[in-house]
């Protein structure tokens, strides 16, 4: 153990390594608090701190009266260049994807939407709220803003499939570039409710601006991801000097 590492951090790291290596598989019950206390020769408070952190991070799930079990693997989503649909990204992980529409409404462009979408104040903007699920559990709540002038009349059928594919095939808007800003936030009551997530727990927050091949912005979105159900993969290719 690193001499600068707290005992609970060491226990957490040890358990996490065993989960990642497959020593503890999805659905396996891990040793009890008392057993872990004996194994690591530490207090119950120290063990509970480690288990609490692993539970909050989505690696363990505690079942009242039954013990603590290894949770299902988190949904992986790619932040680097990809044209794969959400359903395709989830399917390769052995999970069933679902997109549920919360609402579609037309709103007047605000000052902030004017700036990002390059429209005029009060121009009609379609506001589309959706929930993405994996195996029936919410992982993402997304709010998309698309100018009516570019893609009028987006329907529920469009929204509950691949929105980018719809924009390409129906409205001839080909995505060429996205700019994404990522941070950690604490969701408000409404967002937490849509995610079926405890208010006060952190989640990933991503703002995305999508452009076509001519550099025209056609979508701005705000997405909230459950921190215990999602992680992200970033893949970069670097050209080597000859």
UniProtKB/TrEMBL annotation:
What domain of life does the native source organism fall in? Answer: Bacteria
Q: Which residues form the HTH gntR-type domain?
A: 5-73
Checking SMART domains in the record gives: HTH_GNTR, UTRA
InterPro entries according to UniProt = Bact_HTH_transcr_reg, Chorismate_lyase_/UTRA_dom_sf, Tscrpt_reg_HTH_GntR, UTRA, WH-like_DNA-bd_sf, WH_DNA-bd_sf
The record, for Pfam families, names: GntR, UTRA
Keyword set for this entry?
A: DNA-binding, Transcription, Transcription regulation
Record-linked CDD domains: WHTH_GntR (cd07377)
Name this polypeptide is given: GntR family transcriptional regulator
Species this protein is from: Planococcus faecalis
Q: What is the lineage of its organism?
A: Bacteria, Bacillati, Bacillota, Bacilli, Bacillales
């Amino acid at each position: 153990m690193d001499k600068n590492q707290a005992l609970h951090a060491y226990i957490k790291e040890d358990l996490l390594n065993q989960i990642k290596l497959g020593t503890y598989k999805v659905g396996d019950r891990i040793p009890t608090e008392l057993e872990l206390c004996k194994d690591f020769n530490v207090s119950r408070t120290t063990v509970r701190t480690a288990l609490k952190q692993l539970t909050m991070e989505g690696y363990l799930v505690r079942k009242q009266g039954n013990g603590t079990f290894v949770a299902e693997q988190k949904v992986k989503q790619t932040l680097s260049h990809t044209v794969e649909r959400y359903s395709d990204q989830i399917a390769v992980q052995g999970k069933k994807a679902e997109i549920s529409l919360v609402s579609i409404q037309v709103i007047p462009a605000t000052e902030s939407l004017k700036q990002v979408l390059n429209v005029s104040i009060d121009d009609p903007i379609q506001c589309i709220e959706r929930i993405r699920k994996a195996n029936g559990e919410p992982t993402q709540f997304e709010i998309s803003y698309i100018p009516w002038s570019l893609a009028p009349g987006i329907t529920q059928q469009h929204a509950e499939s691949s929105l980018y594919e719809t924009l390409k095939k129906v409205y001839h808007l080909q995505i060429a570039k996205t700019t994404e800003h990522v941070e950690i936030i604490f969701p408000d009551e409404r967002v937490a409710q849509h995610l079926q997530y405890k208010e006060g727990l952190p989640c990933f927050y991503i703002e995305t601006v999508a452009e076509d091949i001519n550099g025209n912005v056609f979508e701005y979105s705000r997405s909230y991801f459950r921190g215990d159900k999602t992680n992200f993969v970033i893949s970069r290719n670097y050209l080597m000097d000859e």
